Amino acid sequence: MDPDTINDLLDGIQESNHTSSDSDNISEHSIGIANDEWRYDTNSVPHTFEFTGNPGLQCNLLNDEPYNYFYIFFDDELYNIIVTCINTRANNIINNGLKQNSNLGRWKDIDVDEFKKFIGLTIIMGFLKFLTLLVVDMKIFCAAYVFTIQLRFRQYNPSKAHKYGINFFELCTYDGFVLDLVIYKGKGTIENDTPFTFGIVDKLMSNYFGKGHTSYMDNYYYNSIPLTKYLLENNTNVVGTLRKNWKENPKEIMNANLKKGEAIHAENGNIHVL
What we know:
alpha+beta
């Protein structure tokens, strides 16, 4: 779906001050897509798409050794990137001048094999009790890299225990396995001019459209009536909560004064709101 179409879907929605990726997927199934009319006097069963994907781990392993699973994520490409960044950072610090007797004065560039040994020792330390593990240069250097770096896209949230941090938007399986993630980096997080929260979901889900997946979303940023329309058009089921102030929500649902145990229902095409 092109950006103009997405913007048409989002017309009237209160937008955040952010920006989405596009998708060219088109529904192959006939499905009732919502219009401007909500019905409160019916109670039909929602149409759900049958899952047609191939679940489970999509890679070949030599055997069931734990390292082979670890290597899926920490492959040679990632090791080389980390080692390059460590050596570059260390040499930049050295070139800017060191204090007398600094451990970095004895620095020698590391290689991937050395870094793998460091990772292995770090993991072992979580299972075995040693009196001391002395790692002079690398440990000090990594600590300096982690805690002194300045990020222009870090976020401030006064309600959190750690008030400054980096926002990650994650697509996860029901049991917590991370399928994909987007790191918020300010302008440019999403490539085009569609609203940010719509674009985040589109970007994370685009590789999974057309297979009958079910997307579960909360109302913090993501779910809305236009987004639900869009996901249904891409053969993706939707379950989630809605913010009361979204303009395309059914008004009678939002304004209902319900007592404990009462419920109200509205449907529009294949979108059902309780």
